[in-house]
Amino acid sequence: MVLITMLCGALASPDHVQSWSVLALAMLGTVMVVGGANALNMYLERESDKRMKRTRTRPLPSGQLAPRIALAFGLALGFTGTLLLALAVNLITAGLALFALVSYVWVYTPLKRVSPWALHAGAVPGAIPPVLGYTSVTGRLDAAAGALFLILFLWQIPHFLAISIFRQSEYEAAGIRVLPAVKGLNHTLYAVVGYSLLLVVGSLAPLAVGLAGPVYAVVALTSGNVFLIWALIGLRAASPIAWARSLFFASMPYLIALYATIVAVNI
After folding, report:
1. What is the pTM of this model?
2. Do the Cβ atoms of 17 and 23 come closer than 8 Å?
3. Is pLDDT above 90 for 54?
4. Dmax of the chain from CA atoms?
5. What would the pLDDT profile of 130-182 be if each residue is shown by its tens digit?
6. Which residue of 2, 36, 41, 72 has the lowest C-beta tally within 10 Å?
7. How open is the CA angle 137-138-142, to the nearest 5 degrees?
8. Which residues contact 222 (CB under 8 A, 6 or more apart)?
9. 23, 135 contact by CB (below 8 A)
10. Cα 120 vs. chain centroid, distance in angstroms?
11. Pairwise CA distance, residues 8 & 259, whole Å
């Protein structure tokens, strides 16, 4: 998903791709930085991962890999990826990638045990991939890059809140402060609706900055309203867990539809 959204950011650029080899190196550098961030995240969470069904078989909690090796690997991968972006792409892309790595590993990861607001902190680095694609082509940060960022930032919140509903017991066992555990199910359901509404509004940002036109508006409003209705169904769902799973899976093609349409109208 990181690579797909990054590629969409690059292809949506009004400057168009001038060098496919540079874009390929930008994608490689991004893969390395993201891989490094994931490895460092797993290093920091190796004990709590033992208490979650979906993470207990990872290399560190299962004892397949020594923690010091994972730490060295994560640091080396993140550093090398950032260096590659700086030397082969541009400093803006490298700086954004480094910011994403640092904020994900040393802000979002520890904050998860403190407050459900960690979700918003984690959504910042999580929304940077399409911006990396955009800056790798244009070499600049502007309103269009901000629009691409805003969509992914807002999308992550209902997407993860859905996960936190059907994985609540596992997160609690791992000591992670997700919203359903802190504020309860009803509060979380209304939060999903509220952020889904914000997502519909935020998805129109490409129109405001000239990155898309009427075709995108139709796709964004149609798919956004379907997603919002799906979110509203959760308020009266007989099985909130089954509904949350369905919203989680529906959120992914929704996101792809938005970015794919932005790309299509800019090619």
Report:
1. 0.95
2. yes
3. no
4. 54
5. 999 999 999 999 999 999 999 999 999 999 999 999 999 999 988 999 999 99
6. 72
7. 135
8. none
9. no
10. 11
11. 6
For residue 246, what are its two tokens?
Answer: 């369905």
Residues 6+ apart with CB under 8 A from 41: 104, 105, 109
pLDDT reported for residue 210: 93
pLDDT(266) > 90 = no
Q: Which residue has the higher pLDDT, 267 or 76?
A: 76
Place of tokens 């000239």: 210
Q: How far is CA 142 from CA 8, 133, 247, in A?
A: 16, 13, 32
Three-state SS string over the chain comes to CHHHHHHHHHHCCCCCCCCHHHHHHHHHHHHHHHHHHHHHHHHHCCCHHHHCCCCCCCCCCCCCCCHHHHHHHHHHHHHHHHHHHHHHCCHHHHHHHHHHHHHHHHHHHHHCCCCCCHHHHHHHHHCCHHHHHHHHHHCCCCHHHHHHHHHHHHHHHHHHHHHHHHCHHHHHHCCCCCHHHHHCHHHHHHHHHHHHHHHHHHCCHHHHCCCCCHHHHHHHHHHHHHHHHHHHHHHHCCCHHHHHHHHHHHHHHHHHHHHHHHHHHHC
Tokens representing 107? Answer: 């802000």
Q: What are the structure tokens assigned to 88, written together?
A: 């082969």
Q: Rounded CA gap, 36 and 231, in Å?
A: 34
CA nearest 36: which of 97, 107, 114, 113?
Answer: 97
